[in-house]
Amino acid sequence: MPMDKSSPGFLNTIAGDALPTCSAACPVHTDTREYVQRVSMGDYEGALDILLEVNPFPSVCGRICHHPCESHCRRAAIDEAVSLRMIKRFIVENTRQYRIARRKKAVQVSKDKSAAVIGGGPSGLTAAMDLALRGYKVKVYEKDSKLGGMLAHAIPRYRLPPEALAEDIEDILATGIEVHSGCTVGQDISFEQLKKDNDAVLIAVGLAESHSLPIPGTSGKGVFLGVTFLWDVANGLCPELGKRTLVIGGGNVAIDIARAAKRLGPEKVYMACLESRDEMPAWKWEIDEAEEEGIEILNSWGPKEILEKDGAVTGVRFRRCSSVFDAQHRFSPTYDDSETNTVAVDSVILGIGQKANLDFLAGSAVSVNGGRLICDRESMGTSEPGIFACGEVMTGPGSAIQAVSTGHDAAKVVSHYLETGKLLKLPNKKVLDIGELPAVTAANARHFDRVCVELSDPAERIKDFSPIEPVYTEEEALSESRRCLSCATGAHLQFPNHCAGCLTCVRICPFGVAQVRRTAFMPPQQCQTCGLCAAECPAFAIDTLRFPTSAMKTAVEDSVSALDPGRIARPFLISYCCVNGTTSRKYLGEQSAEEIMESGILRVLVPCVGRLSMADLISPFELGADKVAVVSCPEDGCYYPRVESWLDRRIKRTQKYLDQIGVGGENLQLFNMEGSGDESWPRIWEKFRAVNLETAVGNL
Amino acid sequence: MIVADPKPFLQVKGYLEDFQKILVVGCGTCTTVCLSGGEAEVQILASGLRIAFGKDGRKKTILEECIQRQCDLEFVEPVLSRVESENIDAVVSLACGVGVNFLADRLGKTPIFPGLDTTFYGANVEQGLWAEMCAGCGSCIIAHTGGICPVARCSKHLLNGPCGGSEKGRCEVDPANIECVWQLIYDRLKRLGRLEDLRHLLPAKDWSTASDGGVRRSTREQLYDI
Ligand SMILES: Cc1cc2nc3c(=O)[nH]c(=O)nc-3n(C[C@H](O)[C@H](O)[C@H](O)COP(=O)(O)OP(=O)(O)OC[C@H]3O[C@@H](n4cnc5c(N)ncnc54)[C@H](O)[C@@H]3O)c2cc1C
Ligand code: SF4
Ligand code: SF4
Ligand code: SF4
Ligand code: SF4
User: Fold this and answer.
1) pLDDT tens figures, A549-601
2) SS3 helix, strand, coil % of chain A, rounded to 5?
3) Residues of A with CB below 8 A from B29's CB?
4) Are residues A249 and A127 part of one domain?
5) Could you tell me if the CB of A32 is within 6 A of ligand 2?
6) Three-state DSSP class for A210?
């Protein structure tokens, strides 16, 4: 009997408007905690629902998101952040049928206004989808034959296979947006025409072109522009590289270029950048993976000249870059010309940054300054009324999920404009978060290793563009999901009038969280949701938001009320099991009444059995159980410190009481599982049911 | 506060054999704090009664309630009306004896039974452990004994101790669990630099302020005509 599947909107009640740090850091504020909790209860479909609420690109993000959520996960204060991107990937890859089934039919156009979106990247598609969902007619113009922008034609397949992108795009297209692909605005259709045909135009053209370098030799044979190079690679047009290739640039794009180049067969691939190792803008994990693949990184070198012979590249001459940033941390490189270095290569790829191609705006009233689109960040409006911008063309280089976020915003401002003819100033997006996990709390918490997957062997993976990262197995995903602290969903004083200030909660809390000032108080930022206080409070004044302790009894009652007592296989066992022990959905799913009656076993899954109060331990007998099993984690495996000993005392007291009331204390037993619950629970149940004890309350 | 312990289950069950509709009432003050009569214990007792009577093949209605205090009229009144309106046959109180009495005085024809054994006025000296500290004698003498009460904490209530049964600071009555209060008093007065006080023997105590003087009352002139 899984419980607590609903999203109870906890935060309004216990942490004000503050979000957990993971959700606050996510540009679209994915309800991270909720989807992770749903995974932990085996509800992968429900988890997908949460993802899709705010992010039309979960499959993409499961592969390539730079995961600011993870970087802000509070668990890092204890050991390591929860591996959120990997959990997300697990969800999308295990709910494909469901995702197709939940897909709604195309939305009917219900408004008489239309919008054109230029660019079918993540920002443009998100905006188009939102506008379509609001009932507008939306047309997307994409110059490429494929949708997805950089996701489709820049990010190499070993990180983002086209099938993953396709899953997201199919969903988006199902909303009924009209797509004109292979249609370059400015060539195949004019910007003026779009303006004439539509009530609003959204420019979402991204940064489609690479910057070149103002040094000699960049036009020689063997010099490639990064984005063009990646486009060719993505489209299966293998650019011909020489034996030795050098990529200029130190960001993530340059890394992608170098790693893609490596897969095309050159013997040697270098990366050279102005930045020192620590200053490199690329993510550390990307740099590590590149080096594993044999890419050599030359730090703190500025290219001076690309050397050519007979029109073909022969090498690059560098000078030492002594500093990249000025005191205000602005990009302002300085060089030491006395130190130079020449690297002999026959191909050079420029990965030093991208810019927008705004040629299609020539002659229009939309202002462009120095190649940049002029756009007000608050209203997303350009200098011409009715023309808006979103995505990287507005923000500059960023991430896919940030582009999605601006797409959502753009739909808001565009629909406001379509309805009122006015600009909407978006409120300052500063979100409140619940703050870091206090060090005292973290110090009391148990450590659990992050579940890591092994990437394919570097020697093998550079041979082609096959994806290099395996998806979590179900067991891994479940195990990792349980590392989430489910921040700020813990204990709170549900009935302040009942609290007698007895201090039991203060004394029993293993994390030093609960306090009493006249009545009890559990700071939501600190509580770890073990539920011990709720179980021991003599006034039953405490409840937990995640998996409400108060709901336990009713939940069991509901399950039992659907049974025909005469048909239940005896002895009837009600088994409380710690959900953290499951390695698959086998026992996480709903049990049918028939199944319960036939097997004589009702499972009640709780995240830590330490939260079961004595009343919870007795009530199953009142409901007709003959035996009650409490199955906890393997010895010393509990997520919370000291729970085992408190639970043990509680069970012993209850056993004595059961003796007095004539049930027989031996009909309540505490078991530690061995290995996983999936294997050991059935053994425990079978053994316990087979012990020939007089049935407890058979005639109730 | 007042400390009370749960009565053996069968004793409570025994009181209730003849009644059909029973209300278990907890107390949200002292007996909640000493973990014997709050909401949680009400549920545990009620559940136990239902199961035990059920096993005997006698289905009874066991109702539950927990109020803030059983020693104040306004808190108690809703219970009284409930007993009346729901035709409750008997009440079990999980308050200290005060609550049971207070309810009994007001319950008309409905019987009430104690679910607890009320033990003493004590303090929570350790998690899960309470110890007696005062006996409510009505004329407090502990100004002379360093704030430590020999009436309550000396097994023999000696006003001038210790007796010969004091050994290594423990009381001969139960050395494992009882400290000799006169040792405690001695140690405390020594720390206070007032050992000399022990030379002034305490005179025989007037016990009329204690229960020996008859049933006691306490009044507040600002609220009550004396
Ligand atoms: C190599 C590389 C690797 C990246 N890796 C990651 C990563 O790992 N994680 C991450 O989160 N982000 C990554 N990003 C960033 C991410 O891809 C971008 O932030 C995102 O794609 C920007 O979305 P967008 O909609 O603003 O623009 P784009 O994705 O650039 O989409 C713009 C679209 O507009 C089209 N277009 C342009 N001009 C016209 C025109 N005149 N007419 C019609 N159509 C036009 C283009 O063809 C393109 O499809 C990476 C980017 C690159 C280049
Ligand atoms: S522990 Fe869970 S809820 Fe807390 S920040 Fe990390 S992912 Fe979010
Ligand atoms: S355990 Fe319950 S009654 Fe005691 S202080 Fe905590 S909340 Fe209040
Ligand atoms: S005992 Fe557990 S649930 Fe209660 S306040 Fe402490 S950490 Fe939170
Ligand atoms: S002397 Fe009497 S009133 Fe004072 S503490 Fe002892 S028993 Fe209580």
Assistant:
1) 888 888 899 999 999 999 999 999 999 999 999 999 999 988 999 999 999 99
2) 35, 20, 45
3) 500
4) no
5) yes
6) strand
Residues of B in contact with A613 (CB under 8 A): 40
> Is A460 within the bounds of a domain?
no
Say which CATH number the domain at A197 has: 3.50.50.60
| Nearest protein CA to atom 8 of ligand 3, as residue | A499
Inter-chain touch A700–B33, beta carbons under 8 Å: no
Nearest to A661 among B29, B41, B52 (CB): B52
Residue A127 lies in a domain: yes
Inter-residue long-range contacts of B117-124, CB under 8 Å, 24+ positions, other chains counted? B117/B4, B117/B5, B117/B6, B117/B7, B118/B2, B118/B3, B118/B4, B119/B3, B119/B4, B119/B5, B120/B2, B120/B3, B120/B152, B121/B1, B121/B2, B121/B3, B121/B152, B122/B1, B122/B3, B123/B1, B124/A503, B124/B33, B124/B34
B32:A500 CB<8 A:
yes
User: From the CA of A119, how far away is ligand 1's center (Å)?
Assistant: 9
Claim to verify: residue A214 and residue A347 sit in the same structural domain:
yes
A687 & A567 share domain = yes
CATH architecture label of B2-119: 3-Layer(aba) Sandwich (3.40)
Q: What is the bridge-based pairing of β-strands B166-167 and B170-171?
A: antiparallel
Cβ–Cβ gap B33/A502 under 8 Å: yes
- CATH number of the domain to which A29 belongs: 1.10.1060
Q: How would you classify the pairing of strands A137-142 and A114-118?
A: parallel
The answer to whether A157 and A118 are in contact (CB under 8 A) is no
- Residue ranges, comma separated, of all CATH 3.40.50.2300 domains in chain B are 2-119
Q: Identify the sign of the CA torsion B206, B210, B212, B218.
A: positive
Contact A519, A495 (CB under 8 A): no
Task: Looking at the structure, tell me whether residues A640 and A561 fall in a common domain.
Answer: yes
Residue A210: per-residue pLDDT: 93
Task: Encode pLDDT of A123-143 as tens digits.
Answer: 999 999 999 999 999 999 999
Its domain, for residue A166, covers: 103-208+356-430
> Out of B10, B54, B124, whose CB is closest to A700?
B54
> B55 to chain A: which residues are within 8 Å by CB?
661-663, 697, 699-700
Q: In whole numbers, what is the pLDDT of chain A averaged over residues? A: 93
Q: How far is the CA of A57 from the centre of ligand 1 (A)?
A: 13
Q: Which tokens hold the place of A374?
A: 């002029």
Question: Does the CB atom of residue A74 touch ligand 2 within 6 A?
Answer: yes
Say if residues B195 and B186 touch (Cβ distance below 8 Å): yes
Starting from the CA of residue A201, give the closest ligand. 1
Q: Which residues in chain A are contacts of B8 at CB distance < 8 A?
A: 660
Does A618 contact B57 at a Cβ distance shorter than 8 Å? Answer: no
Place of tokens 């991204």: A206
Ligand nearest to the CA of A512: 4
Ligand 5 binding residues, C-beta < 6 A: B 134-137, 140-142, 149, 151-152
Query: Quick check: is A599 in a domain?
Result: yes
Q: What is the pLDDT of residue A14?
A: 52
Nearest to B9 among A504, A621, A660 (CB): A660
Tell whether A627 and A674 lie within a shared domain: yes
User: For the residues B193-202, what does the mean pLDDT come to?
Assistant: 94
Of the residues A355, A370, A391, the one at which a domain ends: A355
The domain tally of chain A equals: 5
A386 CB neighbour count, 10 Å cutoff:
18
Q: Does B147 have pLDDT greater than 60? A: yes
Is A459 a member of any domain? no
Q: For residue A571, is the peptide bond before it cis, meaning its omega torsion is within 30 degrees of 0?
A: yes
Distance CA A375, CA A388 (A): 8
Specify whether A109 is located in the same domain as A145: yes
Same domain assignment for residues A323 and A223: yes
Same domain, A503 and A636: no
Distance A123 CA to ligand 3 centre (A): 51
